[in-house]
Design goal:
This protein has a domain of about 200 residues. About 75% of the residues lie in helices and about 5% in strands. The chain contains 15 helices and four strands. Strands 1-2-4-3 form a four-stranded mixed beta sheet. Strand 3 and strand 4 form a beta hairpin. Helix 1 packs antiparallel against helix 10 and helix 4 packs antiparallel against helix 5. The protein is globular and about 65 Å long. Bound molecules: zinc ion (ZN). The site of zinc ion has 4 residues, from helix 9 and helix 12.
Length: about 400
């Protein structure tokens, strides 16, 4: 978008100041975490934990920097408008080609941070078990998936502009965007994740029997309890609940199964069932969709107010780039919700499994995943999707008596 009018220049100035303000704020917060860890982890045996935690804080900031840098590259330099102008001469095919080239180049820009994070954080701390070839394979798959999704996404979101004027077509395309995100929410566990990792049903046996009995006690029956081959990429251990309707599932990493006892796995599984029973996933994504829709409307209104002459295709791509970056003050609110969900899932697990087993599972996970037990207050408030380990353990011990 090139600011061609006075109000366009004002809009551009306000947006730049807003984004830079966010980067400065996040830099202060991440620096606080860096210093908090340096003060909290002083003994020689904690140096690996310290380095890993500090680098993660640095890359937390770099993720925000990357969002702003991509906006600067595509919008401030006029690269996006230039690419569109060059390809739209070829008509409808040219517009689709524009979407594909943008998606591929933008993903390439994202890969820089992903590679640096793998090299400087996960590999340096000994947490990664990936080879350079495997990481390159993941990059290639992401590039391919993004480029392939660009064409249907473009057709889907731009469709209203073919039949209605901007004032109606923009909100309608916002509704279609939300529907598209809902589709991705279904597609991610079912179609996309299996391209990166291998999922297999938990084999029959002692563990399967215990988990089935526990689900029965909870009055819940999940169709799928899957094991994912995380060990091919990472030493980290993890479990999560995902999917809707018949595709809902709990996924346990093979590293988790290798490190925890059956009672501990049962407690972790009860925690994941807690997320399911409390409807956390739906609640979180519903609020996320509302926020995105509101932001999308606001961008359309701002462009109409500034009287900018922007093709809907370019504006939709600009909105895709800007929405995650413009919403930086909402991050703390979203993180707080997610931490509350974790406490709710912990309380559910303590009720339906042994609280002591969840405590020892959590202790093992913190150690295995190189997670420092404490965090800076501000950093936790803004970025932590899980409460600091020490706080979670203290609550569970209070329940356990
Ligand atoms: Zn959880």
């Amino acid at each position: 978008m090139v600011a061609s009018t006075m109000s366009g220049a004002a809009l551009f100035g306000c947006m730049s100041a807003w984004l830079l303000g966010g980067l400065v704020f996040e830099a202060i917060v991440c620096l606080r975490q860096w210093r908090h860890l340096a003060a909290a982890l002083r003994s020689p045996s904690q140096q690996r934990l310290l380095r890993y935690g500090q680098r993660r804080a640095l890359f937390q900031w770099l993720a925000g920097f990357e969002r702003v840098a991509r906006i600067a590259f595509w919008l401030a330099t006029g690269a996006l408008a230039g690419l569109y102008a060059a390809l739209q001469a070829y008509g409808g095919v040219g517009v689709l080609l524009f979407a594909v080239v943008f998606a591929a180049l933008d993903q390439l820009l994202c890969e820089i941070r992903l590679w640096a994070r793998w090299w400087c954080v996960d590999r340096a701390a000994g947490m990664s078990t990936s080879t350079v070839g495997a990481v390159a394979g993941d990059s290639a798959r992401r590039l391919m998936i993004n480029s392939m999704l660009a064409v249907p996404a473009c057709l889907w979101i731009l469709w209203p502009f073919a039949v209605a004027p901007f004032g109606w077509a923009w909100p309608a395309s916002g509704v279609l965007m939300i529907a598209g995100i809902a589709f991705l929410f279904w597609a991610r566990p079912n179609l996309i994740a299996p391209l990166f990792e291998r999922f297999s049903p938990l084999a029959p046996g002692e563990l399967r029997r215990r988990l089935d009995a526990m689900m029965q006690r909870c009055g819940t029956r999940l169709e799928q309890v899957l094991v994912v081959d995380t060990s091919r990429r990472s030493r980290g251990a993890n479990a999560y609940f995902t999917g809707l309707g018949r595709s809902k599932r709990v996924v346990l990493s093979d590293t988790l199964i290798a490190h925890l006892s059956a009672a501990e796995l049962e407690a972790v599984m009860a925690h994941e069932l807690g997320h399911y029973r409390c409807g956390h996933l739906q609640r979180f994504y519903a609020s996320q969709a509302l926020l995105l829709f509101g932001g999308y409307l606001a961008i359309g209104m701002a462009v109409a107010w500034a009287d900018l002459a922007v093709a809907p295709t370019v504006l939709a791509v600009a909105a895709y780039l800007m929405l995650p970056a413009l919403g930086w003050p909402l991050q703390a609110w979203q993180s707080a919700r997610r931490r509350r969900y974790e406490y709710e899932a912990d309380a559910y697990a303590a009720e339906h499994a042994q609280p002591g087993a969840l405590i020892s599972a959590l202790e093992k996970l913190l150690a295995n995943n190189l997670t420092a037990p404490t965090m800076d207050r501000w950093y936790a408030a803004v970025f932590a999707t899980h409460p600091p380990g020490a706080a979670r353990l203290a609550r569970l011990r209070a329940i356990d008596g």
